[in-house]
Design a protein that fits this description.
Layout: H1 3-6, H2 12-29, H3 36-62, E1 84-86, E2 90-91, E3 96-99, E4 114-118, E5 134-137, E6 143-152, E7 158-168, E8 175-177, E9 184-190, E10 193-196, E11 204-205, E12 219-220, H4 227-233, E13 237-238, H5 239-242, E14 259-260, H6 264-273, H7 278-281, E15 285-287, H8 291-295, E16 310-311, E17 317-318, E18 323-331, E19 338-345, E20 351-357, E21 361-362, E22 367-368
Parallel strand pairs: 2-7, 11-12
Antiparallel strand pairs: 1-3, 3-5, 4-6, 6-7, 8-9, 9-10, 13-21, 14-22, 15-20, 16-17, 18-19, 19-20
The structure holds calcium ion (3 copies).
One calcium ion binds near residues 119, 120, 122 and 124.
């Protein structure tokens, strides 16, 4: 800009300029000027020059357009936020990947764009800004979520976008916590079934000398009346207590919410999943080939059936580590005192099926309500 330097310290420089100009003017030109008119014209010209130079100076100081020149202002454009979720559906066991790399900006290169996430769209950003565009996470609580992504360019402009995500209940969580007593159970998925991998142990211990009753208290036996055995092998229950005084097959009974006492047919389903034929599964006595080996602790099914012994109808605790019995929720067709049972023995490869006395106290494995 020509005014820079010349009128840098206006008005001092301007006055110097006028004085210099006037001196020259008078020395060289005045003798040719015959009239006052011309002199006024010259003065007008000086004034115009001064005003013009002042305007230039004002432009420098006031920064009319922010560029220090007369080019049109360049506006930063806000970035555009966009992201995908993979997989698009899942449950509380699913590791979701959130990918914001589809976001873009006209000025800022993708690698310099920053992103941050709000997993509930509650206005509190749950991550710091980062140039890393992907993020992986699980959701511990099932439900409908709105995920918010904010993208920021290097000029501090931002954009926000949201997407919805439904997180289902994990049909077979690795560990299930019984909300009634906070006891944890590991689980195993076999075929379409989700089984507890441990015998149920809930309720208040009573002595083996007493029968259980419909008294509003969830009662349990521990082998030899020793609470430590309940912790190691699970508890033993009489059928009526186990069923919570209903005869409805497949009832929740004393299992936690979302679980039930498996039916005779559901046990057959398990046995057939381990290789038993339909004809064998539906027959009684010892059936199949090596399904008991697969079911017992350390077996290939992962079921880890503990041989917890049982409490006999004579109130004796019998056969710990040698025999395990599991009640189903299916009562016997003919004898009203009996229900269908599975027995496993430490020296037998096959599973024993029989309808047996409800008054015995056996183990129970809870089965998750239909998972598919
Ligand atoms: Ca931008
Ligand atoms: Ca949040
Ligand atoms: Ca009871």
């Amino acid at each position: 800009m020509y005014s820079e330097g010349l009128f840098k310290s206006f008005p001092v420089d301007a006055l110097k300029f006028i004085r210099y100009f006037c001196t020259c003017f008078y020395k060289t030109k005045i003798k040719y000027m015959k009239t006052k008119k011309l002199r006024y014209l010259a003065m007008l010209l000086f004034s115009a020059l001064i005003i013009a130079s002042c305007n230039e100076k004002d432009d420098d100081n006031g920064d009319d357009n922010g560029n220090g020149n007369d080019d049109p202002p360049v506006e930063n454009k806000a970035p555009v936020a966009d992201f995908s979720i993979s997989p698009q559906t899942g449950n509380t066991d699913t590791l979701f990947t959130f990918d914001a790399s589809a976001s873009y900006d006209e000025e800022t290169p993708a690698a310099e764009l920053e992103v941050r996430w709000d997993w509930q769209n509650d206005g509190n950003w749950d991550t710091d800004y980062t140039t890393e565009k992907t993020h992986q996470r699980k959701f511990e609580v099932h439900g409908d979520y709105t995920i918010a992504l904010q993208v920021r360019d290097t000029a501090d402009s931002t954009d926000v976008t949201t997407r919805n995500l439904t997180v289902d209940i994990d049909p077979c969580p690795d560990v299930f916590t019984d909300p009634r007593d906070q006891r944890e159970y590991t689980t195993v998925e076999i075929g379409d079934q989700c089984w507890m991998k441990e015998n149920l142990n809930t309720g208040v211990m009573i002595f083996g000398s007493q029968d259980m009753s419909d008294n509003g208290t969830l009662e349990k036996y521990c082998y030899d009346n020793n609470a430590a055995n309940c912790n190691e092998y699970g508890a033993l229950y009489q059928w009526n207590e186990l069923m919570q005084y209903t005869e409805e097959e497949g009832s929740q009974g004393i299992c936690p919410e979302g679980w039930h006492v498996p039916t005779d047919v559901e046990w057959m389903q398990l046995e057939m999943e381990l290789g038993m034929t339909y004809d064998e599964a539906t027959s009684s006595g010892f059936r199949g080939t090596d399904e008991a080996i697969k079911l017992r602790t350390g077996g290939s099914s992962g079921f880890d059936a503990q041989l917890a012994g049982y409490r006999s109808v004579n109130s004796e605790f019998i056969n710990l580590n040698a025999q395990g019995g599991f009640f189903t929720s299916t009562k016997a067709l003919v004898n009203p005192n009996n229900a269908w049972v599975r027995f496993l023995f430490d020296d037998q490869d096959r599973i024993y099926r029989i309808d047996y006395q409800k008054k015995m106290a056996l183990s129970v494995r809870c089965l998750r309500d239909a998972i598919r």
